[in-house]
TrEMBL record:
Chain intervals for the UniProt region annotation (Disordered): 224-307
Native organism: Methanosarcina lacustris Z-7289
Low complexity biased stretches: 246-257, 270-280
Domain of life of the native organism: Archaea
Protein name, as recorded: Cell surface protein
Family matches, as InterPro entries: 6-blade_b-propeller_TolB-like, Beta_prop_Msarc
SUPFAM superfamilies: Tricorn protease N-terminal domain
Length: 402
């Protein structure tokens, strides 16, 4: 396994997507946001757009869909499709309202659309069929009430479209089958399930039922879906009943490869089984992935990789020391924030060593509060803050379990 730079000039490149040997991303090397593509076989890069493109795109086969802006005041939002085989750009939709998160599979393009918003924040899922040139509204009309009407973040595979739906007052996952014209509620848990992706008969999503963000999976083909609490089954039609709503994807993998942090940003852990390398591009810090790792962690360039040694198997003091080392290695600026966070951990460690667990937990709660406030003030990135809060909560659980 090897890693290689695709777009590594000094400007920002982000939001990558891949299909086969084609990688697309948003690029601001020209001063605005453009879509670029690289063919991994030929190593040739192609500039796809030259206008006011929004960082929102997807690729399927030879087709790339994306948003851009038009109008004298850039007040029109459009979805375009670019066909790599014909080098032709096609406008799919234009609107003065919000259009977000396009996705494509075959001839079908789906997106999140706020054309029906009457001030309640309503967004719906729409689809356009390139073969029939017909647009279809996928989600039902909003009938008012107290619940949030958002339907967002669509994903499509074959005849099935999944999305995040707030009609029940919290985020659930819904699916629509174009072959049967049937809508199915996939999750019913009262916590938030968000950002679904579908491939084949498998749906994955972010799930907050455990107090933190986990990844859960649902297999449409299975007659019964195992869950952590064992309370959920599938009724055969893809409808989820009970309090489980999916199988949690484990993140306790063994990683035998080195992790290298290089470049201009914060690398987010991928929590996958990985025998290769893990690279963060940029001047930032790689966030540890909480896995057992038998390889070396190397920070190159101006980045700092922090060892992922905050294992649940370690004692609270060991985990506090590991978290303190992470804090001290994280920042190249905001020195006062670093000192404040490290000081709280030092104090908590002293209390823990003296058997004053209640005071140790109090200091950890203060650490969590400070990390969350620094996140709000944008002095700490969301990924870094969320990691620190998550690890501090794990340590609190360890202390209280003793």
């Amino acid at each position: 396994m090897f890693k290689t730079g695709i777009a590594d000039n000094t400007s920002d490149q982000f939001d990558p997507a891949i299909y086969g040997n084609k990688v697309v991303w948003t690029d601001n090397r020209n001063g605005g946001y453009d879509i670029y593509m690289q063919n991994l076989s030929t190593k040739v890069q192609t500039r796809i757009t030259t206008g006011e493109t929004a960082p929102d795109h997807a690729i399927y086969d030879n087709r790339i869909v994306y948003r851009n802006f038009s109008g004298e005041h850039h007040d029109m939002v459009n979805i375009y499709m670019y066909d790599l085989s014909t080098k032709k750009e096609t406008q799919i939709i234009t609107s003065r309202k919000g259009i977000y998160n396009p996705a494509i599979y075959g001839d079908r393009i789906v997106w999140e659309d706020s054309r029906n918003d009457d001030g309640t924040g309503n967004t719906d899922i729409y689809m356009y069929d390139l073969s029939t040139k017909q647009e279809t509204r996928i989600t039902p009309s909003y009938e008012g009430g107290d619940n949030n009407p958002y339907q967002s973040n669509p994903s499509i595979y074959g005849d099935k479209i999944v999305w995040e739906d707030w009609r029940n007052g919290n985020a659930d996952i819904y699916m629509y089958d174009l072959s049967t014209n049937k809508e199915t509620q996939i999750t019913t848990n009262k916590s938030e399930q968000r950002s679904p992706v579908i491939y084949g008969n498998t749906i994955v999503w972010q799930d907050n039922r455990n107090g933190n963000a986990d990844i859960y999976m649902f297999t449409l083909a299975s007659a019964e879906v195992p869950t952590p609490d064992g309370n959920e089954t599938d009724d055969g039609n893809g409808t989820s009943n009970g309090t489980g709503n999916g199988t949690q994807v484990p993140d306790n993998n063994s990683d035998n490869g080195p992790g290298n942090g290089t470049g201009n940003g914060t690398q987010v852990p991928d929590n996958n089984s990985d025998n290769g390398t893990s690279n963060g591009t940029g001047n930032g810090t790689q966030v540890p992935d909480n896995n057992s790792d038998n390889g070396a962690g190397n920070g190159t360039g101006n980045g700092t990789q922090v060892p992922d040694n905050c294992s649940a198997k370690l004692m609270p003091l060991d985990n506090m020391q590991a978290l303190k080392e992470y804090v001290e290695c994280t920042y190249e600026c905001h020195e006062n924030t670093k000192i404040g966070l490290a000081s709280l951990l030092d104090t908590s460690m002293c209390y823990c060593e003296n058997g004053e667990d209640e005071k140790a937990v109090s200091m950890l709660n203060s650490f969590i509060h400070l990390a969350e406030k620094m996140k709000e003030c944008q002095q700490v990135s969301a990924d870094e803050a969320d990691y620190m809060v998550r690890e501090a909560k794990k340590i609190i659980d360890q202390i209280e379990a003793n």
